[in-house]
Amino acid sequence: MRIPLARPDITEREVEAVTRVLRSGQLSLGPRLEEFEEKLAAFSGARYAVACNSGTSALHLSVKALGIGSEDEVLTSSFSFVASVNCLLFERAVPVFADIDPRTLNLDPSAVRAVILRDYRWSVDRKHLVNRHTGRTLRALLPVHVFGLPCDMRALVSIAREFRLAILEDSCEALGAEVDGRRAGTFGDVGVFAFYPNKQITTGEGGALVTDDWQIARLSRSLRNQGRDDRSEWLRHTHLGYNYRLSELHCALGIVQLERANELIAARARVAAAYLDQLAGIPGLSLPAESPGVRRSWFVYVIRLQGPAIRLSRDRLLAELRRRGIGCAAYFPPIHLQPYFREHCSAPRDPLPHTEAAGRECLALPFFSSMTAEQVEEVSAAVRRVLSVASTHTRGPVRRLRAAASGAS
Questions:
Q1: Do 206 and 52 touch, CB atoms closer than 8 A?
Q2: Rounded Cα gap, residues 74 and 67, in angstroms
Q3: How far apart are CA 217 and CA 211, in angstroms?
Q4: Architecture in CATH of 263-408
């Protein structure tokens, strides 16, 4: 693609940092890991950070650390990348979907509450909620800050407290986002970030969980390192663990990226503002929403084709833009409609009309911190042109039919 969907922002500083590690001879479990975790905890506003080799690994460790297992259910969104549900399926827990807010595309607190009140009852000792149909325990909420816009965490925290639920906060797309001045990822028991190359900062591959709970942090560090605890020798294992470690190379890259995080997030905000200037006012084209008291950390720039003014499908627009050398993607196909989910997951599901509509209508445009004004203008002009041509081709036959009908009368 002439203009890619995403591109990491790497400078000589990152290259030099990684090169120093290569020359040091210590490529794993060294000082860069500890430094990266300390700086990430400070940046996010949490006490502890545990770095992992992916956001998916960090989500999985969070599920394990919260003790969520095969007899448990977790309320979450289907409008997300599959990892936010896979982390539950790894432990044979059952995801229960509530619909999204059609404006923010995030988990709708009113839909969450409606599902709880309809499908769950208090256990005999009133310590937890039990599903009236499955008998499983509702253990947690898993909100996803979609596209870098934080969920309504005030409402979701209130629901979690009322019904004694844990919160696993998927902030993989929202590093640096805020609600009332508090960073996303710190409202729940655990928050998770991801550092894939299309994210606000990158470690190449990587992720991390953050928490204020020392026991969660300690257990997660053990599980990511083959079950060794902080007192173990190399061949002593206190838990059934995983190889979810993040190498010194990745951490060195991440340290420099984290030091540049405010700069990178601000650059992405400037690109988003340029898109808004170029695309505002196009009939039937919905642009990303904002919320009071919320600071978005821009992950992708997603437009939505809605209403009778739009004369072609999202998929047709996607194909036309790609034909012009412009990278774009359908963000997100709902998880409950994924082939593997339909085949292997038989949990009953409510209709999710807002989720499925967003899955049909949303399109991610090229978006990265180094994107130029000329590139934004080219992409925006292509969007306007394709929509205009589609509208013209549709209106012509309609006008001719109307004229013929008028003449016949």
A1: yes
A2: 12
A3: 7
A4: Alpha-Beta Complex (3.90)
Same fold, 12-261 and 263-408: no
Hey, what long-range contacts does 322-325 have (CB within 8 A, 24 or more apart)? 322/1, 324/382, 325/1, 325/2, 325/3
- Please give the single-letter amino acid code of residue 113: R
- Whether the full predicted model's pTM is greater than 0.85, yes or no, is yes
Over its C-alpha atoms, the chain yields an Rg (Å, rounded) of 23
The pLDDT tens digits along the chain (409 residues) read 899 999 999 999 999 999 999 999 999 999 999 999 999 999 999 999 999 999 999 999 999 999 999 999 999 999 999 999 999 999 999 999 999 999 999 999 999 999 999 999 999 999 999 999 999 999 999 999 999 999 999 999 999 999 999 999 999 999 999 999 999 999 999 999 999 999 999 999 999 999 999 999 999 999 999 999 887 788 999 999 999 999 999 999 999 999 999 999 999 999 999 999 999 999 999 999 988 999 999 999 999 999 887 878 999 999 999 999 999 999 999 999 999 998 888 655 789 999 999 999 999 999 999 999 999 999 999 999 999 887 766 544 434 433 433 343 3
CATH of domain 12-261: 3.40.640.10
Domain range list for the chain: 12-261, 263-408
Contact 145, 171 (CB under 8 A): yes
Q: What is the dihedral of CA 174, 176, 180, 181, to 10 degrees?
A: 170
Q: What is the DSSP string of 50-106?
A: EEES-HHHHHHHHHHHTT--TTEEEEE-SSS-THHHHHHHTTT-EEEE-PBPTTT-S
**211 in helix, strand or coil?**
strand
Please give the structure tokens belonging to residue 153.
Answer: 């965490």
- Residue 67 and residue 60 in contact, taking contact as beta carbons nearer than 8 Å: no
Contact 151, 106 (CB under 8 A): yes
